[in-house]
């Protein structure tokens, strides 16, 4: 039960931190696309997807890698999965824990909406954590629907691994971080 609560806390905290990061960035946020610009870029992303591939990663098992140069502030990929309610996410979390699934890919959008990419998602679920990431996750609204989109924080070169900071909440049971960054915090939480 403690592991279940920890995982749920991490999912909840990740969504909260996305919002807090946007608030804290202030001027930095203005440098990233917002509003109509988000919708325009999202539509471009649908038409011309970034060339990405998943492959073995030195950070953790599998990772997502750029197969082309990606410029700072560009949308990289949408985090896709099954849109479920919080109660369903709670049930699935228990089910995943019981069945021994090592990782689940629950990403909270708001108080009652969660994206579950554990079984029905895209390659965005392979994006690994890094304490000094090259991307950030943002929640945008397109045609009345909330979407999770990964943006490049900086230029990303071909062959470079796509990463973002999971920003899990601090917990007693620590999850070791393997990002290898000189600024590594040592744990994900």
UniProtKB/TrEMBL annotation:
InterPro entries: Post-SET_dom (IPR003616), Set1-like (IPR044570), SET_dom (IPR001214), SET_dom_sf (IPR046341), SET_SETD1A/B (IPR037841). One of its GO terms (molecular function) is histone H3K4 trimethyltransferase activity. Its EC number is 2.1.1.354. It comes from the Eukaryota. Keywords: Chromatin regulator, Methyltransferase, Nucleus, RNA-binding, S-adenosyl-L-methionine, Transcription, Transcription regulation, Transferase. SMART domains: PostSET, SET. This is [histone H3]-lysine(4) N-trimethyltransferase. It comes from Syncephalis pseudoplumigaleata.
């Amino acid at each position: 039960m403690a592991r279940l609560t920890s995982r749920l806390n991490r999912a909840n905290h990740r969504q909260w931190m996305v919002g807090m990061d946007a608030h804290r960035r202030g001027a930095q946020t203005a440098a990233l696309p917002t509003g109509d610009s988000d919708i325009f870029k999202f539509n471009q992303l649908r038409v011309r997807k970034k060339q990405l591939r998943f492959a073995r990663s030195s950070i953790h098992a599998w990772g997502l890698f750029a197969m082309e140069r990606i410029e700072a502030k560009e949308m990289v990929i949408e985090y896709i999965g099954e849109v479920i309610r919080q109660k369903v996410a709670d049930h699935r979390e228990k089910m995943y824990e019981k069945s021994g699934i090592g990782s689940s890919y629950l990403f909270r959008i708001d108080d009652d909406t969660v994206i579950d990419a554990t079984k029905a998602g895209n390659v965005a679920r392979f994006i690994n954590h890094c304490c000094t990431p090259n991307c950030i996750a943002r929640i945008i609204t397109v045609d009345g629907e909330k979407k999770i989109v990964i943006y490049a924080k900086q230029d990303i070169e071909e062959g470079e691994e796509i990463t973002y900071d999971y920003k899990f909440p601090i917990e007693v049971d620590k999850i070791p971080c393997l990002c290898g960054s000189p600024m590594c915090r040592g744990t994900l939480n």
